[in-house]
Amino acid sequence: MKGKEWYQADEIAEAYDDKRFSGGGQFIDRREKAAVLNALGPVEEKSILEVACGTGRFTVMLAREGADVVGLDVSGPMLQQGKRKAAATGVDEAVEFMRGDAARLPFPDDHFDAVFAMRFFHLADRPVTFLREIKRVSKGPVLFDTFNSQSARVVYNWLLPMGSRLYSRSDVDALLADAGLELVDEKHDFVLPYGFYRGLPESIASPFRQVDEGLGSTGLGDALASVSYWQTTDAEE
Ligand SMILES: C[S@@+](CC[C@H](N)C(=O)[O-])C[C@H]1O[C@@H](n2cnc3c(N)ncnc32)[C@H](O)[C@@H]1O
Predict the structure, then answer these.
(1) Most exposed of 82, 149, 163, 188 (fewest Cβ within 10 Å)?
(2) Residue 236 included in any domain
């Protein structure tokens, strides 16, 4: 499992949000949050589990939307950032942060209305183990994202500290079949590399994002997208 140790360091956890989601990186944060909200639909009073919640970007957002949320992560320092964020946002009562391993979720079957994991499957050596476990504890939607092999990500993946597992369409289809999940909806985004956005101030990144969104609304944009969001459900229900 890539990243299980990496995210245990205080300095990595403290720099996590700033490094990825400030400046032009805010476009990435906004788009990912919109993808989660769109896929989950109205969340008020729903019980939702976020697996590998990290610094609680989505956990806190969902609590603000009125959901009853649990954020689980293996890293204490990442959870600490999440707790701070929840307190600063005034939603600490609606969120429970829990330390645990996504391979053995400490919940009974069908415990949550929905379960999701973002920016997690690129770290997994055996993704099906996690996906089956996520499916087990959800009685509704299962949502996750992948970084795609047919994208600009290939060019700079080797530069990243731990690289990423990249997925082709057929990898995702095989993964879903293996986990017993059925695809309900899919969204594809970001033709321009994430690293490019992060390197720019928001005002300069803005016109590029418009071009990116324009391209993204064409078939070519889908084919070259660096990230995909997969909304799924139990194939047997
Ligand atoms: C790239 S971060 C993503 C965090 C958050 N989902 C986000 O999008 O901002 C990956 C997270 O996965 C967590 N992680 C890695 N292996 C894990 C495991 N086996 N069980 C639970 N969390 C894990 C790391 O601690 C880290 O917080």
Answers:
(1) 163
(2) no
